[in-house]
Amino acid sequence: MSAPIWTVAEVARALGVAGSFPDTPIDFVTQDSRLVKPGSLFVALSGTPSGGFVSAFASARDGWEFADKAEASGAAAMIVPHEIAGIRIPQIVVKDTLIDGLWGLARAARARFNGPVIGLTGSAGKTSTKEFLAAYPGAYASPSSFNNFWGVPLTLCNAKPDASLWVVEMGMNQTGEIARLSELTRPTVALVVNVQPVHLEKLGSLEAIRREKVSIALGLPEDGVLVLPAGLKASEWKGKVVRFGEHAEVHEVAHAPHGESWQIVAMIGKKEIAFSLTPGAPHRVQNALAALASIRAANLDAATLAIKLDRVGIMTGRGVEQAVGGITVIDDSFNGNPASVAAALQSLQARHMTGGRRIAVLGDMLELGDDAPSYHTALAKHLDGIDGVYCVGPLMRHLYDVLPAGKGLGWHDDPATLKASEIANLLQAGDVVVVKGSKKMFWVNKFVPGLVAALQAKA
């Protein structure tokens, strides 16, 4: 039986809370009362973030209002801003449950770990790259997309002290957030997967996005390593740099498709390594190279990771495939920006077809600022080999209006009123259809499950 990650007494000491606390084991730390299970530490966060952070999902209620539910679900203890009447399990009281509680415990977790820590960020593909890194034997990695002001500290608090490697994904909702998350994480290796026009509405320019992503280096020690794509400047960092991509230290030598898999040969330093990816796609190769470069930078064996990469599948909403009535549906609806939409189209183009058509259902790419129309129009240059496009949203009208004759399958203004049956009726046996757009376009509306149901009804 593995040792607990904390005890209640250890948590209290880590947070500088005086008093007598039991050595009750804690196996899981969460801020969500719905996820509490026996042996959990429940961190009761405010519904409105503190610390200057911004949340797109701020709650009208505070976490401590659910203290009774957490206790009933088996919580061993809870971190609260004040004593809560009627609660019988230990209450660790701090002034601010986010900054003094969750972040304080995260700092204590990081301080006791002496192994390598890879922190990563990027405009697109960071979660997929994180999943590649998580395949390293004995590694502990951020679950799902835990990459914000509460997800990163939760990752650190739950990380196994005896892991071979910690992998921590970092995202941003405002300027300066990645630097703060990196300084909390204190990575030994910092990876920037890529820099693309995402969050332009908030940051204003590609250069501002570059600065924000490269600020992950602010958490590195002097002997740390920054891992970057070939060609990305990062003059702010004066330490060691490892690069991946064309003509870089870590690069692809060749690849050969075998069905949905790609057999790849890569150069890692001066050593050639062969590995497979299923499914294979250009952007997955780049993500794999980023992961291998980071493992090399951490002084771990890249070949040990390479042989595991073929077992890393696709996460829900990020390219998961299912066959329905002879039609292949690719659910890539979790998010969408110019880089990831282009990658999805490129993957569709590279797909081996024995009949049927390559179809793209594309929704608006949000948060692109004043240049949003031109980014949507520019997708037209990525449509060679795509047989039909259905556009959804007011911004995608800009693409629809420039589609070549015969390629436009239709346009619908509001994703909330788009009927899945309308798309299902456009498809025929042998077709492969990818659904891609910003999260609010298809993911939130559960459009793909609706499309699958409509295709099943049609079959």
Quick recap:
By secondary structure, the protein is of the alpha/beta class. It is 28% helix and 22% strand. The protein is globular and about 75 Å long.
Task: Walk me through the topology.
Layout: E1 6-7, H1 8-14, E2 25-26, E3 28-30, E4 40-43, H2 67-72, E5 77-80, E6 91-93, H3 97-111, E7 117-121, H4 126-134, E8 139-141, H5 151-158, E9 165-169, H6 177-185, E10 189-192, H7 200-203, H8 206-214, E11 225-229, E12 240-244, E13 250-258, E14 261-268, E15 271-277, H9 282-297, H10 302-306, E16 320-324, E17 327-332, H11 338-350, E18 358-363, H12 372-377, E19 388-392, H13 397-400, E20 408-412, H14 420-424, E21 432-436, H15 447-458
Q: How would you sum up this structure, described in words?
A:
The termini are far apart. The protein has 15 helices and 21 strands. 28% of the residues lie in helices and 22% in strands. Strand 19 (388-392), helix 13 and strand 20 form a beta-alpha-beta unit. The protein has a 6-stranded parallel beta sheet, sandwiched between helices. A 6-stranded mixed beta sheet has the order 16-17-21-18-19-20, sandwiched between helices. It has a 4-stranded parallel beta sheet with strand order 3-4-5-6. The chain is an alpha/beta fold.
**So, the CATH homologous superfamily of the largest domain?**
Mur-like, catalytic domain
CATH architecture of the largest domain: 3-Layer(aba) Sandwich
Structural class: alpha/beta
Number of domains: 3
